[in-house]
User: What shape does this take?
Amino acid sequence: SDHSPLTEAGLAMVKGPVVLPTERAKTIAARTLRVPAGSEQEERITAAYRAFLPVNRRIREVCTAWQCRPDGTANDHTDSVYDAGVREALEDVHEDIQPVLRRLESVLAGSGRYLTDLEDALDRFDDGAMEWLASPLCDSYHTVWMRLHQELLLVLGISRAQDEALEEELVTRSRG
Assistant: This one.
């Protein structure tokens, strides 16, 4: 599709097959999407976001495990037992994100699409199309997940640095 209106407006940059938002676009999006500070909506989205973060750590671990073996070598997918274990871990993550997304749906317009898109990606992955777990070039499970994460940061006005610190804190606390 033609991205020139976006690139001419300084809102997007094209890098090969990938279209990325510029800093200007991110600033505009952040202002537009930010929910009112101190509102009940912000409070409820924050609760969902705090439930999201420990699961977020686990999806990163699943994607890493799918791409690399524990010894650091690339996963060539010849070990079906190993791959089945990764798929099982993905199933646990998928189970755990559903209540978070249901909470979000009632308070953040349009967020219902995330669960639909995650389920679509999972179906395609289970049909044998391996790129539907983590490829950045399609609406893979990881791509959709990153979009969800990005939207949470924008609506709550949270920086990446704050996000990483809070995730670390919540993960550490949950591991007791």
